[in-house]
Amino acid sequence: MPVFMRVRQQSDTTDTGTEGTSPEGGLRSRLTSRLDRHPTAVRNAQWTITVLAAVLVLGALLLPNRLTTLQADRWFTRIPVEAIIGAAVALVLPRRPRLVVAALSGAALGAMVILNILDMEFVQYLGRPFNVVLDWELLPDAQSYIADSMGKAVEVAATIGVFVLIFVVLGVMALAMVRLSNLLARNKQIATRGTLAATVVWVTCSALGLQIAGVPLASDRTAGALAVQAVRVRDTLRDEAAFQKVAKVDEFGNTPGSQLLPDLRGKDMLFTFIESYGRSAIEDPVEAPGVDATLDARTKALAKAGFHAKSGWLTSATYGGSSWLGHSTTMSGLWISNQQRYRTLMASDHMSLTEAFKKTGAWDTVGIMPGVQKSWPESKFYGLDSYRNAFQMGYKGPKFSWSTMPDQYALQQFQNLEHSKKRNKPLMSLVILTSSHQPWAPIPKMVPWNDLGDGSIFKAIQKAGNKPSDIIASSPKSQAEYGKSVQYSVTALTQWLERYGNDNTVLVFLGDHQPIARVSGNHASRDVPISIVAKDPKVLDKIDSWGWTDGLRPAHNAPVWKMSAFRDKFLTAYGSTPHPKKG
C-alpha cells in the first residue's frame, strides 16, 4: 500500500477516534445513527409536525370570537384568504426576510388567537367583546374574583397558566409559520401551483357566495377581525373626546338646592342596588317561579305593613358585571358603558342624583358599601358625607365567595350605625347589596334579625352551602342558585323595610345588570327591574304617569327606559326645576 494512503487512513482513524471521545460528538453520532436506522419513523414524525403546524395556522385563521360560533363541523371547513396571501409572500421573499416575516406574522396570529379568546370570555361574562384600549385594567378584577370564589391557590395557578399559555401560543404559532414557509420554499414549483389553484377556488367561492350550512366557504375572518379591532380602537378614542363634552352638559346642573326635590323633603330616602338582579330573574322559566313567588309574597307582606310599590324596567349600560357602570349610569343620567367614560364622569362636576340630595342641604347622606375593600374616592361624586366599607361594619363571619358579608347583616349594620341615629335632618342612603353576586355559591340564608350579632352565625350556613366548583360549570345549577340568591336579597331588603321603615321612608331599589350568559342566555336583554316603595301615597302618586306596575314585580309590558333616563325623570317627578348647565 502506498505511503500516502497509509497516512490518510491513519489520519481518518485518528480524527474519528477523537470525535468519539467527545461527549457532544458521541451523542450526536449516536443520535444520527439511530435516526439513520429509522428513516420511515423520522419522515412520519416530520410530516406529523408539518400537518400539525398547518392545522394550527388554519385553525387560528378561522377561529371565531364567539363560543356560539365555535362549531367545527362547518366553521373550520372554510378557505382563509390570509393563508393564500401568506403563501404567496413566502414564495417571493428571499430566505432571511421570509423567516423574519414568518416568525412575526406567526406571533401576530397568536396574538389574534388570544384576542379572540378574550372576546369569547368577555361576551360570555359581560355581553360585549374585549376592548384592547380600556379593558386591560379589568383583568386584576378577574384575578380577585377567582381568588374570592375559588381560593388563592387556584388564582395563582390560573394566573401562571394564563401567562404560560400566552407565551406558548405566541411561540408555537411563530414556529408553525416558519416551518410552513420552509416547506413552501423547498417545494416552490408545487407550492406556486397550489397557491394559484387555491386563489382561483377562493375567488370563485366568494363570487358565487358558496356556503356550507349557511357559512360562506371563502373566509377573510382574520383580516375582518383586524379591521374590527382597528375600528373599535378608533371609536374608543373618539368616544373619549366626545364624552368629555357630553359630561359637561347637565339639565339640572345649575339648579339651586332650594329647587331640587322639594316634594321629598322630610323623607328618609334609600337607594339600593341588588347585584345581578335582571329581567331574567323574573321571566326566565328556571329562575322566575321562585323569584316571582318571593316578589308577590313580599308585596303582600309590605302591604300589610302599610307599604305600597310601583315597578318598571330600565335598560342597563352594562351586562354580566362591571356593576359600577350601572350604578353611575343610574345616578348620573349619562350612559356610562365603559371604563373611560366612568373615569371621565368621576373626575367631572356633573351632578349625581344622590348629590342632588346633598346639594339641597336638607339631607344627611351616607353610603353602605360592603363590596368596597379599599379606598373609594367615588364617594365625592355621589355626594356622600360618609360611607362604610367592608371593614367598617364589624363583620366577623365568613365571606360568601366574592361577597364579603350577607345582605341581611349589611342592612342590620346600616340600621345600627346610621339609620337609627337621631338626626336633625332626614337621611339619604346609597346601599349596594352583594349577596347575589356570581358565582352564587355558597348562598346565605335568612336568620332571626335579633340573632345576627357580629355575623358569626353565618359560619355554619357558609360551610354547609355549595362550593363554587359545584355549580360554576353547570348552567342549570347556576340558574337555580342565582334565582335563590335574588330571593334572598329581595327578602332581606324588604324585611328590613318592614322592620325599620316608617311613614317617611322611601325605598328605591333596582338591579345593576343582568347575570352572565351562563344564567341569562346568549340573547338576553339588558333590562333590570326597578321599584319605588313608600307608605305615603303622595310619593307614588307623583309617578302615576309613568305607567309602572303596582307591586314589586313589573309586568312584562311595563315601560322600559334607558337607565340613563332615570335621574332626570325622578328629579322632575319630585318637583325639581331644570336650570341647564351647557358646559
TrEMBL record:
Superkingdom to which the source organism belongs: Bacteria
InterPro entries assigned to the protein according to its UniProt record, in alphabetical order: Alkaline_phosphatase_core_sf
Secretion signal, residue range per the UniProt entry: none
Region (Disordered): 1-33
Sequence intervals crossing the membrane: 44-63, 75-93, 100-118, 156-178, 190-213
Biased composition (Low complexity): 11-26
UniProt keyword terms in alphabetical order: Membrane, Transmembrane, Transmembrane helix
Record-given protein name: CDP-alcohol phosphatidyltransferase
Organism whose genome encodes this protein: Streptomyces coacervatus
